[in-house]
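BUG: 3D viewer hangs when loading the predicted structure for this chain

Environment: internal workstation, default settings.
Expected: structure renders.
Actual: progress bar stalls at 90%.

Input used:
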Amino acid sequence: MTENLTQPELDLTIGGQTGFNPSGDEDSRTAFRNALGQFCTGVTTVTTVAPDGERVGITVNSFNSLSLDPPLILWSIAKTTPSFSCFQPDDPFVVNVLAADQEGLATQFAKSGSETKFKGVTTHAGLQDVPIIDGCVAYLECQVHARYLGGDHDIIVGRVRRIFNLRKAPLLFHAGAFHSLGPA
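Structure tokens produced before the viewer hung:
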């Protein structure tokens, strides 16, 4: 559904900035992305095992809690991601919440190609042999509970099966850069 804004709505100014529709041109979409970047997020690496047995991992900052009962989380995956098909209903995966000293891992797992993602990375075998990355803040071992269309992404809902909380300082992402804060 496309919403047409009226001229008075388009003319609203807050803090010296006039609002605009983010669905417009490329500059509008860039401004939308930059506005979203003002929301500080944690950084995770989601791991799984592909049907052919290959270890899969991607950096994700769209992670969020959804429900305590049942224990559900959610995150989104771009339709252009090579591992897009690796997260089907009932498939296992792990949300590895990255620590402040794991910025290099966030960058490593954000790159395309699978041959170097796990190079030099110490892992533990989690439920169904899904790799758990050593040194993280917390771990949520999950199974895909549901998957929903969401524009150029799919939203993955995971049912949490087992957790570990090591209470270390987390890695954060804000305005296009990594940051950290003290331990929890």
